[in-house]
Design brief:
single chain; 355 residues; alpha+beta; 4-stranded mixed β-sheet; 3-stranded antiparallel β-sheet; 14 helices; globular
């Protein structure tokens, strides 16, 4: 990966501000992690590796050097202070048994990266909850490895590994072999089993296709799992009714968001027919789709994210891109072949040319 970024400081300041604004709109607070992932200097999978204690510093996983990260942190501070945001120093510790402090770079000045910038609109109760949540140590993380591995302590292996001192250890050597695995899928059961268990760990596995660590379940004490199952059986009917209410509420929220997104598409692309704008918003903003319309940027109605959703629609509906893929043309080559048609259609939607 390239370790340089030739952008000037003013240009970088604008990019930092854009990424921070999106996070602030979505959550009412901003972190350095929000900015560097928004800049695409780091992917969330890199942050996961770092939080699991499998990298000495975050910088070694970054697409830019340590000096560039320091500059971004300084620019974030300037932007946040100008916006009147409230700084809160937040500890970052690894999801390992030693709970060691995570380092962003190899240099001094780690506090510049730890600050969370809170909106002044947040209530004191919300600030207190955020502060409490951020001060809690992270979950222990057990990795279900994809490849063969051996324990650094005993030389044996097993279905899960725990990182200690930057080396993999089996559950027996990590004193976790008495825990039972609870697969993900039942949120109430998982939450209650974790509450009941004096010791627990989150189990993750790397998805090579999506390039992210995915949660597989929990390791919890047997007695805790049994107690959680009893609690879930006792109020199953109540939870079913609550889930139905939540489903209706989420559907209403999706309709509201898609309506706002369609309105923004119509503003940016006045030549786009209203039914088409509505169709793009409904498709891109579908919950759980993973499409660009569900990104934090799109939910903040960021112009670039909205444009990407429109481009995706044009690519599939107004060009022969899909046919090219089916005929065996490589994806990037197919995109090059339809780029001129996409640009023409974008100009048409912007009202610059006649249909």
């Amino acid at each position: 990966m390239s370790r340089t970024d030739g952008a000037s400081r003013p240009k970088l300041a604008r990019r930092v501000a854009d990424a921070a604004e999106i996070a602030l709109t979505a959550r009412k607070y901003v972190t350095f992690i929000d900015v560097v992932t928004g800049l695409r200097w780091l992917h969330t999978r890199h942050v996961d590796v770092w939080r699991q204690g499998r990298a000495a510093t975050l910088a070694e996983l970054s697409d830019v050097g340590e000096d560039r990260l320091l500059t971004a942190a300084a620019l974030l501070r300037e932007w946040a202070m100008a916006r009147g945001l409230r700084p809160v120093d937040t500890p970052y510790v690894a999801g390992t048994r030693d709970r060691r402090e995570l380092r962003f770079t190899s240099k001094d000045g780690q506090e510049a990266f730890r600050v969370h910038w809170l909106s002044p609109d947040l209530s004191e109760a919300r600030v207190r909850r955020l502060t409490e949540a951020q001060s809690k140590p992270p979950d222990l993380v057990a990795v279900a490895p994809l490849d063969a591995w051996t324990c650094a302590a005993c030389g044996d292996t097993g279905p899960y590994l725990i990182m200690e001192d930057d080396r993999p250890h089996c559950l027996t050597c990590a004193d976790l072999d008495h825990l039972a695995f609870l697969p993900a899928g039942d949120a109430a059961l998982s939450r209650r089993a974790k509450q009941e268990s004096g010791l627990s760990a989150v189990v993750v596995r790397y998805n090579r296709r999506r390039k992210v660590y995915q949660r597989m379940g929990l390791l919890v004490e047997e007695a805790a799992l049994a107690a959680a199952e009893e609690r879930c059986l006792a109020d199953e009917e109540v939870r079913l009714r609550r889930r139905e209410r939540d489903r209706v509420r989420r559907a209403e929220q999706d309709v509201e968001f898609q309506t706002r997104m369609a309105t923004e598409i119509a503003r940016l692309f006045p030549g786009c027919p209203e039914p088409r704008a509505r169709e793009i918003a409904e498709h891109a903003g579908q919950r759980g789709s993973g499409r660009v319309g569900r990104s934090a940027a799109a939910r903040a109605l960021d112009e670039n994210a909205i444009t990407l959703a429109v481009i995706a629609s044009i690519r599939h509906l107004d060009t022969d891109y899909d046919r090219l893929l089916m005929s065996g043309v490589p994806r990037m080559e197919a995109r090059d072949l339809v780029r001129e048609r996409i640009e023409h259609k974008l100009d048409e939607f912007r009202g610059n040319v006649r249909a």
